[in-house]
Amino acid sequence: MAFVPTTKQEVQEWLLRFHAANDSLDVNRLATIYTKDASVRFGNMPLLVGLDALRNFFLATWPKLETMHHEIESFDMLENRIYQPCHITWTVKNDPEKETIVVPAFAAIHLVTSGEEKGLVKSAAYYMDGSPLMTALQRSP
User: Fold this and answer.
1) pLDDT (tens digit, 0 to 9) for every residue of the chain, 141 residues total?
2) Which of these, 65, 82, 91, 62, lies nearest to 18 by C-alpha position?
């Protein structure tokens, strides 16, 4: 993952690796995509700073998920910033309705361009309506 993409093909490859790490639902893989002091915002939620904050945030949800999958719609890269709309699909463990939840999302991702953390996410903002996922999590034992 530790590379800064420069071509359209490289950006797509970088995004596929990034999403694969997230879709694995393994918080130990976060260090392969985020810097140690990464700052991440999910919509109107408080800013998360650092790998420990990210791990704790995802540990509250990921163990309750059966699957998560990001499908890239399109992307653009300007300098060290990737802008990417996608659809995220989840299934929740023990969901009595066995619903497949699909929501559109948008990411603005800033990469480190040099040094030891080159190619990792320094800051990111993710925007989506998470309420369908929250509803499924609440009804699942």
Assistant:
1) 468 999 999 999 999 999 999 999 999 999 999 999 999 999 999 999 999 999 999 999 999 999 999 999 999 999 999 999 999 999 999 999 999 999 999 999 999 999 999 999 999 999 999 999 999 999 998
2) 82
Global confidence as pTM: 0.94
The CA–CA distances, whole Å, from 111 to 37, 68, 92, 108 equal 12, 23, 31, 10
Secondary structure (DSSP) of the chain: ------SHHHHHHHHHHHHHHHHTT-GGGGGGTEEEEEEEEETTSPPEESHHHHHHHHHTTGGGEEEEEEEE---EEETTEEEEEEEEEEEETT-TT-PEEEEEEEEEEEE--SSTTTTSEEEEEEEE--HHHHHHHHH--
